[in-house]
Amino acid sequence: SVKGGPVPIDQNSVSEPFFTDDAKKFMHDGAAVGMLSHTKAVADLVGDVAESFDAVFLPGGHGTCADFVGDAAVALHKVVETMFAANKVFAAVCHGPMGLTGCVKGEEKLPLVKDLKVAAFTDSEEAAVGLTEKGAIHESGDDWSEK
Predict the structure, then answer these.
(1) Which residues of 84-101 are buried (b: 16+ CB within 10 A; e: fewer)?
(2) Looking at the whole model, is its pTM more than 0.85?
């Protein structure tokens, strides 16, 4: 969660076929689960994010549809915009690109995704959340592929 604290895990993620051996190993690692249960709020990272981090990764999942948009995501958008302006890496998977829809670039405050290639969920879903309307060039791959 962008708010910090425990990361919510949906029930489908801990059931077959998604609950893989690697996922089970992770959930039995006390240190890993402890870190997952005590995350920092994104707002606490905004200050010197470009100097402190090499990359920002926006994970997927349906929670991003609430956490990565609107007032809840102001700090997240600032982090992504700062990383973009510093020519740092930012990446997103699955529903993670929801966190890019509110980001802007340059003095003109253009949508950050304008003229960038974006891979995420389907083209119709992308249009529904506004990425293609903001000028993103959507590239899709086959279901469950790496593109």
Answers:
(1) beeebebebbebbbbbbb
(2) no
